[in-house]
Amino acid sequence: MKILIIEDESALSKSIAAYLAAENYTCELAPDKKTALDKIETFDYDCILLDISLPDGNGLQVLEALKANHKTDGVIIISARDSIDDRIQGLQLGADDYLTKPFHLSELSARIAAVIRRRRFAGNNVLEAEGLLLDPQARTVKVRQTPVDLTKKEYDLLLYLLTNRNRVVSKQAIAEHLSGDGEGLFDNYDFIYAHMKNLKKKLLQAGWTDRVKAIYGMGYKMEVP
Amino acid sequence: MKLLNKTVQYYFLLSVILLLVAIPVFYVVLKKIVIANVDARLVATKTQLVPRLQVMQFRNGEPVLGNDITLEKVGPNAARDSLYTADTYRLLTSHLVINRETYRLQIKSSIANHERLITSIIILQVLLLSFLLTGLLLVNRSLSRKVWDPFYKTLQKLRAYKVDDAAPLQLAPSSVNEFSALNTAVEQLAERSRQAYVAQKEFAENASHEMRTPLAIFQGKLDLLMQTDPLSEEQASLITDLATASQRMARLNKGLILLTRIQNGQFPETGQVAIRPTIVNLLEQYQPQLQLKELTLQQDWVEEVTVTANPTLMEVLLGNLLANAIRHNVQRGNIIIRLAAGVLTVQNTGRTEALRQDRIFHRFSKQSTDADSMGLGLEIVRKICDLYGFEVTYRFEAPLHTFRIVMKH
């Protein structure tokens, strides 16, 4: 999978590239609009991460160029601005998602995975981990042949861990992912433990070997080869 | 006291004193004049009478000369003429020698009529002066009011002026130099504060936005740091603390930007928002937190309230209120939500003393040791209430902290 990161802050783009490398994504960096336009003209990407404020222009012009060339690359805008107008403008120009800085790399990774699923596999690729099968389109989970009945939060948690497999996902990132807009009002992460406990119990009952490890109260990691 | 009344008060005082002094003086002077007049007439009568009496022959006793004149024989007496007031008369007594005999001549003139006249004149005078005084007062008042009109207009505009108004302060021009100078000075002052406010607002906005990129870098590096292997427990604990701090910074930033955006009026789109379903929905979201603290929730939906507002902002407003009630609650505490007659009341158990009324709705005036409270929540609540003309109040009646929002009167 090829990803283009259009972002002028090299410290940020390098972090993103380093995190995504663990998922077998190949990342290319474009620090300004000119390089970005050159690259999208020559290559096709599975997903483009686009910062709107670039040193030599507005990132939205890159979106317009993509549209003009009938490219089907998935685009996620990563921006410091998060007003509704900015969002609407970006999404109207054909961006798939809009992520406001600061964000957790695990969240970005989950969003990229979702965009690629939609764009490249029309939504039907089943995520697999040691006999655990998660179908994102049908929103069903099975352990081999046994269906597992999960609540919405448990399902979201599982999908999040699966897309960030083999990496530590912090409890802050999980809390933010699970509670959406309500996040920010509470600093209590205890509710994650409850969800995690229930999820693990259900998966174990269905016959899955537990692969989710708690890392010193810092976060969780799903270890699957 | 109004400046107008103050000046009028002095005029009035002066006029009353003048009136009180003038009336007795006037009375005394008038009486003197009348008496002098009467005396002159008495003397004239005597002068006219004496030559006639000198040639008169008295046959039997004293002659009758008229009602007001008496002539009687007295012993030899060289007393001089005298004039005095007796009863309501003015009396002229004079001694004459007729045919070697001394007579006392008395001429009197009634002054009762003159007294009445004086009284009438005084009454008239008092009435006239009073009318004049009242008239003057009224004229002065209306004139002052007209003269001060531009001042009151300026004052009214200043009262209504808010520094975050988009338009600069415009005052009505005045032909009076003092007022036009005042207006110019006030306009300049208002413009300067407005510009300072705008600059400060832009600074807050820019600073908040500029902070986001370094925050993103920080958070990204932390996420990468978590992936390093091997990782000791000590390192993990340090990273967790950093992650929590980073999360707080991110939230603070989000809160500040939200505040700036509310102040900038960047939530123009409004819709009909029903309070009850919004709250029920939020409570659903906060279920995990409610369960963790084992809170008892009492909901009292007497009457649904629907307001015209921005749905996002309403959700933020109600969310902050409910989150506060949960966050500052005690284990196994209570939350009572009541919606009736356009008023939403959220009550919760918590600390056993009241929060400081004067600071509660202000930025960063957090009054709890709870680290995740960032001190912006209630200011956001107040700003949103201000925006839609809601009235938010806080009250503490042990053991309940009560927040009350009047949404409709």
UniProtKB/TrEMBL annotation, chain A:
GO molecular function, one term: DNA binding
Stored Pfam families: Response_reg (PF00072), Trans_reg_C (PF00486)
Sequence ranges assigned to domain OmpR/PhoB-type in this UniProt record: 124-224
Domain (Response regulatory): residue spans on this chain: 2-116
Native organism: Chitinophaga alhagiae
Cited SUPFAM superfamilies: CheY-like
Keyword DNA-binding on entry: yes
Record protein name field: DNA-binding response regulator
Highest taxon in the source lineage: Bacteria
Residues with the 4-aspartylphosphate modification: 51
Keywords: DNA-binding, Phosphoprotein, Transcription, Transcription regulation, Two-component regulatory system
DNA-binding region as annotated in the record: 124-224
Xref: PANTHER family: REGULATOR OF RPOS (PTHR48111)
From TrEMBL, chain B:
Keyword Electron transport in record: no
Catalyses which reaction(s): ATP + protein L-histidine = ADP + protein N-phospho-L-histidine
UniProt xrefs under Gene3D superfamilies: 1.10.287.130, Histidine kinase-like ATPase, C-terminal domain
Domain called Histidine kinase: residue spans: 206-409
Keyword Phosphoprotein: yes
Its EC number(s): 2.7.13.3
SUPFAM superfamilies according to UniProt: ATPase domain of HSP90 chaperone/DNA topoisomerase II/histidine kinase, Homodimeric domain of signal transducing histidine kinase
CDD domains: HisKA (cd00082)
One Pfam assignment: HATPase_c
Keyword terms: Kinase, Membrane, Phosphoprotein, Transferase, Transmembrane, Transmembrane helix
InterPro entries, per the entry: HATPase_C_sf, HATPase_dom, His_kinase_dom, HisK_dim/P_dom, HisK_dim/P_sf, TCS_sensor_his_kinase
Parts forming coiled coils: none
UniProt superkingdom: Bacteria
Signal peptide range in chain numbering: none
Transmembrane segment boundaries: 12-30, 117-139
Listed name of the protein: histidine kinase
